[in-house]
Amino acid sequence: MENHTLRPTPDALLNPRQDANFKAIFSEDSEEGRLALKSFLEAILNAKVSDIQLLQNELPVESEYDKQSVFDISCTLDGRRHVNIEMQGLNIDNAYDRRAEYQAAHLLNHTVKRGMKWRETPEVYQVSVLNFIYDKESDSGVSEYRMRRKDGKTLSGRMAIVFVELPKYSGESERVEDLTAAEKWCKFLLYADDSARRSLVEEICKSEGGIMAASGILTKISQDEVNWLRQTNRDLWERDQLSIKGYVEELTQDVEELTQDVEELTQDVEELTQELAESQAVIEEKDAVIEDKDAQLLAQMREIESLRAKLANKKATGEL
Q: Which residues of the chain have pLDDT under 70?
């Protein structure tokens, strides 16, 4: 009897852009996992890292009204920088930037311990790997945001939000030797599960030990049928979310169009009402003129009747 499997082919790999798989690659407590995480963060943050320590990924809530923060991957770099790494496939409600700000603020809040001097406040980085384009006006795939004054002066520089927009790296592949470390990582995450790009991915892996380690972990977790079931369920959920989002956008557009139609009809009614009011004013003005003419005519008729009465009286008395 043939075993049922959700794996499309014996050598197919899981999608590293799905949050559970992404987390499995970079949070594995092994030499390969730490090498992959170190290589990735050095490439994205453009900084050397000598030591990485993984932390618990769930921060305690401060009150019953606080949002629970569960990070995909939480770690410290060289004991002085705290980093949270998120993989995000959907920009639900087009508000991921607000979510990232909240996550960064929450992370900073929980790194400042009781009794710590303000000058000892560590740097925190909220790194979001996005499988969608956040900033359509920029070609840059890696963007860093910090609190700054209007003239560009940084405040304290303790909190940074980094967006890695994977779709911006989906263009025609350059020579691997010409790619930056960040570009190599982004192309690996984009194409690791694409059999048509296997040769490119293999070449990238050979050029960077951290990516090779990540590829090894991805190959290993792709052997587990449970991971394929989890990925399939997640794919279905994301498709449902996209369908719902598309339906809501269509309804929103319909409502906007209907609202515009109502506004146009309201304007037409107001214009017709104005025209009717102006016409009524003209009619009333003409009625007033007619009434005045009628009064003048009546006065003239009365004067004629008076003259006729006088004439008849003179005839009767023989004066005429």
A: 1-3, 56-71, 173-174, 245-247, 320
pTM of the model as a whole: 0.71
Q: Quote the CA–CA distance of 74 and 214 in Å, as a whole number.
A: 17
The token pair at 177 is 């030797």
CA distances from 80 to 27, 43, 49, 77 (A): 19, 18, 11, 6
Give me the count of residues in the chain. Answer: 320
pLDDT number for residue 65? 41
Whole-angstrom distance between the N-terminal and C-terminal Cα of the chain? 142
Burial classification of residue 54, based on how many CB atoms lie within 10 Å of its CB (0-12 exposed, 13-18 middle, 19 or more buried)? middle
Residue 67 is classified by DSSP as P
* CB burial of residue 301 (10 Å; 0-12, 13-18, 19+): exposed
pLDDT of residue 119: 87
Give the bridge partners for 130, in sequence order: 88, 165
* Strand segments (E) across the chain: 52-54, 58-59, 69-70, 73-77, 81-88, 123-130, 142-146, 159-165
The partner residues of 124 in beta bridges, in order of sequence, read 82, 159
Name the token pair of 188: 């690996």
Q: Do the bridges between strand 52-54 and strand 58-59 make them parallel or antiparallel, or are there none, so unpaired?
A: unpaired
